[in-house]
Structures are given as structure tokens and as C-alpha cells.
TrEMBL record, chains A, B:
Keywords: Cytoplasm, DNA damage, DNA recombination, DNA repair, DNA-binding, Endonuclease, Hydrolase, Magnesium, Metal-binding, Nuclease. Homodimer which binds Holliday junction (HJ) DNA. The HJ becomes 2-fold symmetrical on binding to RuvC with unstacked arms; it has a different conformation from HJ DNA in complex with RuvA. In the full resolvosome a probable DNA-RuvA(4)-RuvB(12)-RuvC(2) complex forms which resolves the HJ. PANTHER family: CROSSOVER JUNCTION ENDODEOXYRIBONUCLEASE RUVC. This is Crossover junction endodeoxyribonuclease RuvC. The RuvA-RuvB-RuvC complex processes Holliday junction (HJ) DNA during genetic recombination and DNA repair. Endonuclease that resolves HJ intermediates. Cleaves cruciform DNA by making single-stranded nicks across the HJ at symmetrical positions within the homologous arms, yielding a 5'-phosphate and a 3'-hydroxyl group; requires a central core of homology in the junction. The consensus cleavage sequence is 5'-(A/T)TT(C/G)-3'. Cleavage occurs on the 3'-side of the TT dinucleotide at the point of strand exchange. InterPro entries: RNaseH-like_sf, RNaseH_sf, X-over_junc_endoDNase_Mg_BS, X-over_junc_endoDNase_RuvC. Signal peptide: none annotated.
Amino acid sequence: MRVLGVDPGLTRCGVGVVEGVPGRPCTLVAYYVIYTDPQDELPTRLLHLDRNLTDLVAEHSPDSVAVERVFSQHNVRTVMGTAQAGAVAVLTAARAGLPVQMYTPSEVKAAVTGSGQADKAQMTAMVTRLLRLSEPPRPADAADALALAICHVWRGGTRAKVAAAARKGGYR
Amino acid sequence: MRVLGVDPGLTRCGVGVVEGVPGRPCTLVAYYVIYTDPQDELPTRLLHLDRNLTDLVAEHSPDSVAVERVFSQHNVRTVMGTAQAGAVAVLTAARAGLPVQMYTPSEVKAAVTGSGQADKAQMTAMVTRLLRLSEPPRPADAADALALAICHVWRGGTRAKVAAAARKGGYR
């Protein structure tokens, strides 16, 4: 199962691709950060993001895409940029015919570190360990995108296991 | 000059198409409201919005697109849906190679009614009068989209006039 995770942001958008099966360590395929210039107009920035995401989806042919679900933050301006970038990510995946799953930051933290309150450093450390990397992925946006992808592989695993258990038990 | 205006919303997205030249009354071409089902997942909703907007842009071949610029509101959930729908509208226009201009609600109100504090009823009344319609466009999302399009024709007119004056004066 190959998953492309997106940590949406208008200025920096993290993208992480991992491969794995539920209950086993995932393997790193690639990670990227797509930058857009804050000096550019919004149409130019969204178009740049859309083209780069479309290219990465085509290049890596993931089975599904995981995108961080945006929640209210203190800075409304930041929330808006994140919501706009997230919408582009979701739409790009949907246009490619891929299933899209959204996770809140605390769901991802809980899946990867065991705690929904984990900080950035702890998340990066766990992603580095789980993917058996010699160095932590930088910048943090890339680590967050990889964490999202890992979370989705494992959660997909949970669902697959439940489905398997249901079949085994003779009921669906 | 044909302008397609978009009043972005995830549940109801207003679209208005007008034709006109600066300093003269505009003519109504068409207006629509694109609905998406709140019960559907976000990818389905954004895809539905993208497809409908893409079809309307192809059908009406506007010279440019005007989209309402989203600002902070009290309800963060509403802001997010509006930001997501707005991002889809901006991206759809940019992908079609069209220039996109964004206006704040008060810029549109000031352009159409002369007051940045005009209420919904006043806006609808002015749009009805300016387009010489026998009945007010319903629902209000459609009237707002038409107001955006009228605002853009007139503002484009201002810029065109400035450019013309500059050429006339022998400097650019």
C-alpha cells in the first residue's frame, strides 16, 4: 500500500510518500516541500501548488492520499492559507480518482507517537525511527507529511483487520 | 467585457455572469447557484464544485473571473468552507488561463451601492435595478455573485480609463 501524505500550507506544503502494510514498519519512498512565493497572487500560488501535487501524484501513483484536516487556530490568516492549500490537495487527489482520507493533527500524533499531545521534535524523532532514516527529514513540514502517510497505512490496517476479523467470524 | 463572478461557499456557491463596458449599465448573461451536499465527504464536494465551475467557465467563456476575498468571520467552520470553496474557484479560473481578481465584500458593496456597509436587501435591490431585471435574483448568493461581476466590470473600467488617459497624455 503506497500512501501520499500532504501537510497543507500555502507558503510551504509538505508531501511524503511511504509504502507499507498494516502492523509493520513503513518504507520511505520520497518526501518534498512545495514552496510558493508569498509575493505572488493567490491564483498563481494555487496553480503552482496544484501542478506540483498533480505531478507528484502522477510520479508516485499512490493507492490513496492522506491530508491533514485543518482546525481553528489563533491566527485566522494562517488558517485561511492552510484551508486553501488543503482544498487544492484534496481536489488534486479527487481529480486523479484517488481515495482521500483526512486526519486531525492529534490523530496523526497519537498514531505515530502514542500521544495526541506530542510536540514537533517528538514527531520528527518518531518518523525518523519508524522509517529507519539516518537523518531526520527536514523541514518539519516534510516530517509531518510522512507522519500523515504512516498514520494512514496503519489506520487502513486497522480497518483491514476489522474487516478480516468480521469475515473470519462469518458476519459482515 | 464578460465577467464571471463567484460568491464562494461550500454548501451554496453563487455564480453570476454579466457583460458590459465601464461606465455603462451591465447586461445579465446568466446566474446559478451550485449546491453541494453537506452529508458528502469534502473530496466529493470540492470535485462537484470544480466540475460545475469548469463547465460554466467553458460555457460562458468569460474574459475574467471575480471571486470574493474571504475574511475572518466569527464562525471558523464557515470561514474554512468558504476558504476551501474560494480556493477551488480561484484554481478553476487559473487553470482555464483566465485572469482572476479578488474583491472584499465591502469593495463590492461600495462599487454597487455607494456604501461599503450596505445590507443584503440593499445589494439585491441595486443588482436588480442595475441589470434591469423584472425580479430580484434568488437566492442571495446569486445576487452577490452578480454584484461581484458588476464590480469587476466597473473597476476594470477604472483601470482601462486610467490607462487610456495615460496613453492620451503621451506617457505610460
